Amino acid sequence: MRPLTDGIELLVGRDDELSRLVAWIHEAEAGRGRAVLVDGEPGIGKSALVRAACVAAADAGCQVFWGAGDELGQALPLLPLLDALQIAPVTRDPRRDTISELLGGAAVANKGADLAAAAAEQLIALVDELCQAGPVMLVVDELQWADRTTVAVWSRIARSVRRLPLLLVGVLRPVPRRDDLRSLFRVVPQAERLRVGRLGEPAVLELVAARTGGKPGVRLEELAAGAAGNPLYLTELLDALTRSSCLEVDTAGVAELTGTATPDSLPEAIADRLGFLSEAARTVLRAAALLGDGFSVADLVTVTNSSLAGLLPALDEARAAGVLVAAGDDLAFRHALIRRALYDEMPTAVRIAWHQAAAWALAESSAPVERVARQLLPMVSTTDSRVPVPAWAVRWLLDVATPLIGQSPVAAVALLRRAVRDAPLDDAVTGALACRLADAYFRVGNVAQAERIACRALDRVRDPDVVVDLHTTVVQCRGMTGRSAESLAELNDALTQPGLEARHRARLLVLIARTHRDLGEVDSAGRVATAALVELGPVEDRWATGWALHVLSLVAMMRGEWTGALPLFERAMVIVRGDPELIDLTLLLRINQSVTYGALDRYADALAAAGRARELADRTGSAVRLTQVQSALGQLLLGAGRWDDALAEVDVVPDERKDPSVVCCDHGVAAIIHFHRGDTDAARRHLEVAAPYAERIGDRVVEPLVRARCLAFEHAGAPEQALTLLTGVLDGEDAGEDLLADAARLAASIGDVGTAGEIEARASAIAADSTVPHHRALALYCRGLLERDAATLLRAADGYHDAGRPLFRAKALEAAAVALANDESEDRGSARAAFTHAVDIYSGLDAQWDVARLRALFRTYGIRSGPTVKHRQSTHGWESLTPTEAKIAALVVEGLSNPQIAARLYLSPRTVGTHVSHVLTKLGVNSRIDIAREAARNQSSPG
Asked: Which residues pair with residue 65 across a beta bridge?
């Protein structure tokens, strides 16, 4: 809904508040944005105040966007922002079109994709782009009725608003005050909150004089005082008196009462206004009340089955009576309380019938899913459970289940649950509905209920397609609760049922193979996946073929057959490419392909594959896959020595949106970097955050977290405890190669020759038939440590150089330098050269703990003067920026938005946002414009 455009209401007694808003508008123009909360009781004039500020913003050249929450639309996410930012089915703006396509389900990662989360990210990017075009004022009115996703997006924008030319305004009442709304008051500082209070007596008298055209008399003053300083009540009261001819201005210019019949309350005053309308106008307004506080004339035409010409007399009458006002191209009730009065005067049964009729009309006109669902929800919200779901609505639910579940799984559960209840028990439609309902419950996190519904449906459903879909849901549910093994018998039994085609059997075999894989039964998983491909034969089924190849690629990875996994990925991606129903599988393939490339030391290919996966996950709303790919990027960048970029990547997605193992991995990566850089406090904070998540995943090994915990012991001077931790982990089957290198180093450092020998044997076995550079380097490193052979360790360092792994190269050079320093037959020049080379690499990583540790060690060998190396010591100013931050700052100076920078540097907009925040902090500035000013000042400074 756009700001009201019928003229601004009379604004009296709000000069101070308006002045503050106008000052903040000018601040936003200068690039210093802020978030503001405006609160106060209903009718107190909050919206009128902000609308006056919107006029000032528009006059100043700002782009103004206005949306409003609606009590009827709380179950449907993002409606206020979609309305404000003008998201329509077809626009000429690529970003808006992407949002519209997402919410329509045209391109989603899978049936469980979080479309609202994906759309939220795109809306944030759109706000960023709008701010690049010029200063913006974005208002969300009636924020207390907004859905939780809208509130979360408002909060996220508020946290980053300082760097944008944006005035973000939220307008809300004191009640209802949910927890998420309370959190906004922690985000917005006290100085940027406006409490709109009741008008004082002078302002009340000024408003009365302006409305009546005369100085209020004694009786009118007393009556006005009864409005308790509420402008809406006072206005309605005065208009009611005018309509009843109970006001008169005498020749002396005094306005006084001439009658006694006056409304006793605000609802009564509103009812008085509505009572003067014709029945035809009230009928049209009741239909409009079904659509919400603001509505499009086109929707009103649809739900009333009238022509525009037929509606115009009633709409003109309502506008003349002050009930409706223009809001851009749409119409709106002048106040939400007026709409509520019209809505509440209809009996519940009549309202429900009208909502159903409106839903049917909107569905027939192919209206967006959320607009139809908004009309159906009152049907299932009523306490009268006898209201059935009409047949057309059941068909519509089946057609739109995927986008509806993706956008609003809570609404989907409510509608599908009632539809399942009302459908015949043996009807095939019931099975399909139950299947979708189980999906919806799975999506809202009620895994137990999803499994119960799917299992009950399996007892009576005979359609093979639905049967396979239900088994898929059951497998997912049991996998999440650690009960994968329970599915094997049922899946094998399902294979024997009559009426199955080859594609059905192949799909069931794929589910069996995936279950074996989840249970760690690698050989069984590979055998059954191969059987699925054989079962298909010449039959084309992209789902079964793609997933079978995916399982086979996982089997190869679990066996360490990395080279053999690559052609499986390629075959699978050829199969799934372009299929919107297989986007989730495409994402999995891309993520695992990037991991495989990393394992083969092909970092450029790994980062490219991960970048493509991230872009696809971002665009299609796969929150789970997005967290996985960000985590994979963090590990790749850690290994490649791009530590600042790794820290930015693992910090992009909030922990609460990640799988526990991903949280452990990300905080492990961050802790490793901080330990090596000497920031022990930061490293330990990351370990503390990861601790409760580690408890949730039990014995599962997360390599970065294990490495970080070992470093914590080393920093505490307890290498023996670090080695004990590592050897315990290495007894498991899923321990990685990097842990072997650290275990060998620790065993050598404390003289545990037996453990060092065992580790060397394992490393040699890994390298025996491998052509992967870091495998050979690992074997040389372990052997060199065991034998204290400098030449072998230097060869290991060369191998790690070829692998592109600088940290382990530095460790190998350090060990070689120690071996050379301890060898009396060698001159100190060779030891010094290896030592210098290691320090250079550590310094390039900004690993100050390692530099200090190594210099202290070599002073004991009489090598007193270390090399002079340049490394980043500044924490503020341009010199403190990392290479990536410096690139991004330069692009900000060029005027590029975060999405444009992301496209230029092959990063995600979120990652760019993280870097921009770091740049602002390091430069000590508040906005992108300030970055440009600092850049100019830096270039003009001498030297």
From this structure: 138
Residues 6+ apart with CB under 8 A from 240: 262, 263, 269, 272, 273
Provide the 8-state DSSP code for 4: B
**Long-range pairs, 862-867, Cβ under 8 A, ≥24:** 862/828, 863/821, 863/828, 863/831, 863/832, 863/835, 866/835, 866/836, 866/839, 867/836, 867/839, 867/840
For the chain, state the CA radius of gyration: 33
DSSP for 739-793?
HHHHHHHHHHHTT-HHHHHHHHHHHHHHHHT---HHHHHHHHHHHHHHHT-HHHH
Residue 22's pLDDT band, with cuts at 50, 70 and 90, is: very high
- CA–chain centroid gap for 423, Å, is 36
Position 598 scores a pLDDT of 93
Buried b (16+ CB within 10 A) or exposed e, 527-555: ebbbbbbebbeeeebbbbbbbbbbbbbbb
Task: Give the span between the Cα atoms of 843 and 433, in whole angstroms.
Answer: 61
Q: Which residues pair with 35 in a beta bridge?
A: 168
**Which ranges of 279-320 would DSSP assign to H, the alpha helix?**
279-291, 297-304, 308-320
| Alpha carbon of residue 85 to chain centroid | 18
Helix (H) or strand (E) holding 855: helix 848-859
> Distance between CA atoms of 249 and 236, rounded to whole angstroms?
18
Contacts of 140 (CB under 8 A, 6+ apart): 67, 68, 69, 80, 81, 84, 146, 150, 154, 169, 170, 171
Helix (H) or strand (E) holding 23: helix 15-29
Residue 5 confidence (pLDDT) above 50: no
pLDDT mean across residues, the chain: 87
What's the pLDDT score for residue 60? 93
Residue 786 identity (one-letter amino acid): L
pLDDT at 2 over 60: no
319 contacts 6 by C-beta, under 8 angstroms: yes
Q: In the Cβ-directed half-sphere of 40, how many Cα atoms lie within 13 Å?
A: 21
Contact 121, 157 (CB under 8 A): no
Torsion, Cα of 314, 320, 321, 322 (10° steps): 110
CA atoms within 13 A on the CB side of 523: 0
What's residue 242's pLDDT?
85
Which pair of tokens denotes residue 488?
A: 């094997």
Q: Once rounded to an integer, what is the mean pLDDT over residues 529-550? A: 94
Q: Please, are residues 318 and 277 in contact by the beta-carbon 8 Å criterion? A: yes
Burial (0-12, 13-18, 19+ Cβ within 10 Å), 448: exposed
Q: How deeply is 675 buried, as exposed, middle or buried, from its count of CB atoms within 10 A (0-12, 13-18, 19+)?
A: buried
3-state secondary structure of 139: strand
Q: Give yes or no for a cis peptide into 176 (omega within 30° of 0).
A: yes
Cα 296 to Cα 2, 330, 333, 530: the distances in Å are 11, 5, 12, 56
Cα distance between residue 582 and residue 50, in whole Å: 46
Bridge-partner residues for 779, per DSSP?
none
Tens-digit pLDDT profile for residues 443-498: 888 889 999 999 999 988 888 999 999 999 999 888 877 788 899 999 999 999 88
The three-class DSSP label of residue 298 is: helix
Query: Two tokens at 735?
Result: 């321990």
Q: Residue 836 and residue 834: Cα distance in Å, rounded?
A: 5
Q: CA dist 421 to 220, 236, 389, 435, Å?
A: 59, 46, 9, 13
Closest to 142 in 3D by CA, of 330, 293, 9, 329: 293
Is there a contact between 913 and 149 (Cβ–Cβ < 8 Å)?
no
Q: Is the pLDDT of residue 394 over 70?
A: yes
Q: What is the pLDDT of residues 647-664, one digit of tens each?
A: 888 777 777 778 888 899
Asked if 781 and 815 touch (Cβ cutoff 8 Å), the reply is yes
φ/ψ region of 13 (left if φ > 0, alpha if ψ in -120 to 50, else beta) reads left
| 79-89 b/e (C-beta count within 10 Å ≥ 16 → b) | bbbbbbbebee
